[in-house]
Write a structure and sequence with these properties.
The structure holds two protein chains of two kinds. Chain A is built from seven helices and three strands. By secondary structure, chain A is mainly alpha-helical. Chain A has a two-stranded antiparallel ribbon with strand order 1-2. In chain A, a hairpin with a 2-residue loop joins β1 and β2. In chain A, α1 crosses α2. The mean pLDDT of chain A is 91. By secondary structure, chain B is an alpha/beta fold. Chain B has four helices and five strands. Chain B has a five-stranded parallel beta sheet, with helices on both faces. In chain B, β4, α4 and β5 form a beta-alpha-beta unit. The longest helix of chain B has 15 residues. Classes of the chains: A mainly alpha, B alpha/beta. At the A-B interface, β2, α3, α6, α7 and β3 of A face α3, α4 and β5 of B. β3 of chain A pairs parallel with β5 of chain B.
């Protein structure tokens, strides 16, 4: 479900939105929706922020790593905030914020593991001179 | 080859590698430059690693692979990146990662890793 809103903005804000839309190659509507969506998450999770990675926006622990990376480690820590924080050198509150964000918004993060584990053949296609190193048996 | 572990890799990996092999060239980003590169963009990180001659070790294929491909196209220099596949060593498997990195250092000792891309796997 979505609703259409008409907003009256100052010239300065409208120009800033226009610039953002052009730089992100999005429509004014899409970039405005994206900014408002991020604003809503940041109000709810002040320890998180959104940053650009290769043209995609990702939730991150403020001044630290991306939330999907926290979750990657948290899954091995039984989704326990304290253990995850200890492993990553985060404050427990930061790990807790990442876990709570994930609980509230799992879809983009659930997609990350697949995107993060491409087949080796795809990596070789990108880098034909890839150095494949085999982990020795224990 | 000198290895710089990414932010999602526990700093204990570097600590335990040093306990196993004192003086080995492995450092965590949490310690390197007093953590100044934590939370910085991958571009900034790779540039700084290049300045100091560190090869970056990461599980982040999602964002760093396309970035490196872009750097490659533009002819931008870096000091090497090694990707670790989650299916090979889980990020929380500190012992497994220490073993893998020390093995890599042994095999690659003295080799120039400028602009090289590595992939640690269990094999195909």
């Amino acid at each position: 479900m979505s609703q259409k809103l008409i907003l009256e903005l100052s010239d300065e804000i409208a120009e800033a939105l226009d610039q953002a839309a052009r730089s992100e190659r999005l429509s004014l509507e899409d970039v405005s929706a994206r900014i408002l969506e991020e604003w809503r998450w940041r109000r709810r999770f002040p320890l998180l922020e959104f940053r650009d990675f290769n043209g995609e926006r990702h939730a991150c622990v403020r001044d630290r790593l991306q939330v999907w990376q926290v979750i990657m480690v948290a899954r091995e820590c039984g989704m326990d905030a304290d253990r995850t924080a200890e492993r990553l050198g985060l404050e427990p509150e930061q790990a807790q914020a990442a876990l709570a964000f994930y609980a509230a918004n799992p879809h983009p993060i659930d997609e990350a593991p697949g995107e993060n584990q491409p087949e080796l053949s795809r990596v070789k296609a990108l880098f034909p001179s890839l150095n494949v190193m085999i982990l020795p048996p224990e | 080859m000198k290895l710089l572990t990414d932010e999602h890799i526990s700093p204990k990996v570097a600590t335990e590698a040093h306990a196993k092999r004192p003086g080995c060239p492995i450092i965590s980003i949490q310690v390197w430059r007093a953590g100044a590169l934590l939370g910085k963009s991958d571009d900034q990180l790779l540039l700084a690693a290049e300045e100091d001659g560190w090869t970056h070790v990461t599980y982040d294929q999602k964002t760093i692979l396309p970035l490196l491909a872009e750097w490659d196209r533009r002819g931008r220099k870096h000091c090497g990146v090694v990707f670790v596949d989650q299916r090979t060593v889980a990020p929380g498997d500190i012992g497994g990662l220490v073993r893998g990195l020390l093995h890599m250092l042994e095999n690659e000792e003295g080799r120039d890793w400028a602009d090289r891309v590595g992939y640690l796997t269990r094999g195909e």
